[in-house]
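Much of what follows relies on a compact textual record of a protein's fold. A record is reproduced here so that you can trace the correspondence yourselves:
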Amino acid sequence: MVHDKRNKDAVQKRLSRLSGQVQGVARMVDEDRYCVDILNQTAAIRSALRAVERLIIEDHARTCMEDAIVAGDQDRQRIMFQEVVALLEKVRD
């Protein structure tokens, strides 16, 4: 599949930033920082991860799902739709 390079670059940048945030939280725990400060950082991490998920879902819809629609493969379309519904159920928390 051909994926959107802009989304791929954005996802990579966000994941790199997320990695740094997680390491920062680990340091905060090691340093016995105030619990609320740590929880604020974990909330920021969850928000950033949701943004990554949105980019990947967008890319999936624009490439993988669109390919199935253009190909006219109704079985594949049905499967992909069910997969996306299941994924959206998981990520909406």
Observations:
- The chain has a mean pLDDT of 90.
- The first helix runs from residue 5 to 30.
- The CA atoms of residues 23 and 52 lie 18 Å apart.
